[in-house]
Amino acid sequence: MTIEQQKATAQSVYEKLKVIDPYCVLAGGAPRDWYFGNECNDLDFYYVSTATTINACRNQLQKVFKDVEIKTLSEIHESSSSGAREMSNLYRKMPSLIRVWQCKIAGMSVQFIQLAEMGSQFKVIDHMDVSICKIWADVNMDIRLTEAFKKTLASKSMFLSEGYQWSDPHPQKMKQRFEGIFGCASSEGQVNSIILRKALSAIGEK
């Protein structure tokens, strides 16, 4: 599937999910990969539901996404302790997380990450573990860069959100994926220093 085909699928999903949450957002891996001109592996949508029980939430999604089997990650990984552990590591610091739903739409793996309170859809982007993942796409598939992502581009260095380490599974994955392209800073403060040095160097060259 090409990037444009993936975006078309994402846009279709976006429009349907907005029936449940007009403020839902597509963030993380897919917009990041598209930004760098690569096809993505899956789509991660963050949304809030007014439904109060797991069955009501499932029915709400099934009503919008007809003929699609939707399960929670805990249901999918209930027979796999390693799979459950990996999911726990990935989402453990995510604010307001209730549960993660997963399905296949038009051949793409799609995750609906259900959050507890309105407004947390965008807060969650700031809490993503690695700065290179702090990016999102709107319903028109325009890519939106956060300040953290811009700093990563400017400094050529990724940095972590508070509470994460480069030895954690997902940061380690990002470190390996972008090896030779982006360095791994110890903090956002170090990245700010790199950007400042570059700016001062550019002034000195004039």
Q: Main attributes?
A:
two-stranded parallel ribbon; seven-stranded mixed beta sheet; alpha+beta; 9 strands; elongated; 206 residues
Topology of helices and strands:
Blueprint: H1 3-17, E1 25-27, H2 29-35, E2 42-48, H3 54-64, E3 71-72, H4 73-76, H5 81-91, E4 97-105, E5 108-115, H6 120-126, E6 135-137, E7 143-145, H7 147-155, E8 157-158, H8 169-177, E9 183-184, H9 188-205
Parallel strand pairs: 2-5, 8-9
Antiparallel strand pairs: 1-2, 1-6, 3-4, 4-5, 6-7
Helix pairs in contact: 7-9
Descriptive notes:
There is one protein chain. By secondary structure, the chain is of the alpha+beta class. The protein is 44% helix and 19% strand. It has 9 helices and 9 strands. The chain has helices spanning 3-17, 29-35, 54-64, 73-76, 81-91, 120-126, 147-155, 169-177, 188-205; strands at residues 25-27, 42-48, 71-72, 97-105, 108-115, 135-137, 143-145, 157-158, 183-184. The strands form 2 sheets. Strands 3-4-5-2-1-6-7 form a 7-stranded mixed sheet. Helix 8 (169-177) links the parallel strand 8 and strand 9. Helix 7 (147-155) packs across helix 9. The longest helix has 18 residues, at 188-205.
Task: Provide a brief overview of the structure.
This protein is α+β, with helices and mostly antiparallel strands and about 210 residues long. Helices cover about 45% and strands about 20% of the residues.
